Amino acid sequence: MSVITIREAAAPRGVANLMPIMAVVFVAFLVIGVAMPILPLHVHDGLGLGTFVVGLVAGSQFAASLISRPWAGHFSDRSGAKRGVIVGLLAAAASGLLYLLSLGFANTPLASVSILLLGRGLLGAAESFIITAAVSWGLALADAGSTGKVIAWVGSAMFAAFAIGAPAGSVLYAAYGFAAIATATVVAPLLTLLLVVRLPAVPPLQQQTRTSFAEVFDAVWLPGLGSALGSVGFGAVTTFAALLFANRGWANGWLAYSAYAIAFILARVFFSHVADVLGGAKVALVCAGIEAAGQALIWLAVRPEMALAGAALTGFGFSLVYPGFGVEAVRSVPMQSRGLAMGAYTAFLDLAQGLASPALGLIATGARLNSVFLVSAVTVLSAALVALWLMAHPTSLEGTPS
User: Which of 105, 270, 349, 378 has the fewest other C-beta atoms within 10 Å?
Assistant: First the structure.
């Protein structure tokens, strides 16, 4: 029996252990999913602001996540992953209150979007705590050879929330306006707390000398860079796909989010074990090419079906780019610092989104809207170069050469 077959046979048990954590992540990230196709329309059409501001509002969440990642990682390692998730859920509910407050200033667009930016920033910090602590929680429950699987399955719950949240958000917005999105952002995290408090906590691992963030950063920066470059396709779809559909007169722009998320989930359902078996860098190399092809297809799209196929390819590719580079990052640090490692690693994703969304918005302001997907395709291809470097210079524990 091959190694891959053994891994696949063990998958049901590993996934069963992760199911409660995946459920928490799923419900928590519905609040982000419902807003994904709505925020660009609310800011651009509802408040009458330009594409740069659209990109700024979208990117502010990722910028806040970037700043809070080290804090989230340290908190998870020292205080326990369960407490990290609880802090994140409370912050997410507070962000929904700021969404509601911004509606009171709808007649003053700059004031309204400023409050909205604060809400997005708080939601970014919440997302940082929730996903960093959830992955750390999952890694504590799994064996050392299942790092890629844990990252993949916990991330699948997140993108399942995006897939369902996108159409749900469109329905809510069409029926009740942005107030319904804001209310859902308050209520969903508070309901999730009812599930979290029932789950047993995993005590943090103790070590005499705590690894510093600088040491962890030095170990994970190269995989993080690859993940950052690969994530630009994700940002392009989530920020500008709905606007592209509206600009071309195509209906149901939310379908692009769903196509992305469904392909993302399917890739992780059937291939989540591959990075652990074949190596993270090899998987990242192949899948970065698939993601770039998807972005190029959206750029060339003359019909909505082409754009949806491009979104699906983007989702399939990025689905395994992130855990592929994640395997390379986590294996370079001690077990006691996995939460901090995931925080540092994911910080590169936040940095990319915080910079890429406004930058792509500026490109869309000075050029045709579809050009952002060409720029994204070229950027994603750069992630393949990082994967090639990692394949040529493999590392083991604490960043030493293999």
Answer: 270
Contact 290, 389 (CB under 8 A): no
Residue 207 lies in a domain: no
Among candidate residues 21, 332, 5, the one with its CA nearest the CA of residue 153: 21
For the CA atoms of 378, 382, 383, 385, the dihedral, rounded to the nearest 10 degrees, stands at: 140
Enter the tokens of residue 177: 């306006």
Whether 104 maps to a domain, the answer reads yes
Asked if residue 148 lies in contact with residue 327, where contact means CB atoms within 8 angstroms, the answer is yes
| φ, ψ for residue 395, nearest 5 deg | -125, 160
Type and span of the H or E element at 72: helix 51-79
**Phi-psi domain of 399 (left: phi exceeds 0; alpha: psi -120 through 50; beta: other):** left
d(CA 186, CA 385): 42
Q: Can you tell me the distance from the alpha carbon of 359 to that of 314, in angstroms, rounded to the nearest whole number?
A: 19
Count how many domains the chain has. 1
pLDDT tens for 94-120 read 999 999 999 989 888 899 989 999 998
Which residues, at least 6 apart from 30, have a Cβ–Cβ distance to it below 8 Å? 161, 164, 165, 168, 184, 188
Mean pLDDT of the residues in the chain:
80
Q: Kindly indicate the confidence band of residue 400, based on its pLDDT and cuts at 50, 70 and 90.
A: very low
**247 class by beta-carbon count within 10 Å (0-12 exposed, 13-18 middle, 19+ buried):** middle
- CA gap 362, 67 in Å, rounded: 23
Exposed e or buried b for every residue in 39-68, given b needs 16+ CB within 10 A?
A: bbbbbbebbebebbbbbbbbbbbbbbbbbb
Residues of the chain with pLDDT > 90, as a percent, come to: 14
C-beta of residue 245 within 8 angstroms of C-beta of residue 308: no
Axis crossing angle, helix 371-392 with helix 338-366, rounded to the nearest 10: 150
Output the six-digit token pair for 28: 């928590």
pLDDT (tens digit per residue) in 350-391: 777 667 777 887 777 766 788 888 988 999 999 999 989 888
Is residue 277 included in any domain, yes or no? yes
Q: What is the CATH number of the domain that holds 41?
A: 1.20.1250.20
CA 122 to chain centre: 16
286: domain range?
3-201+212-399
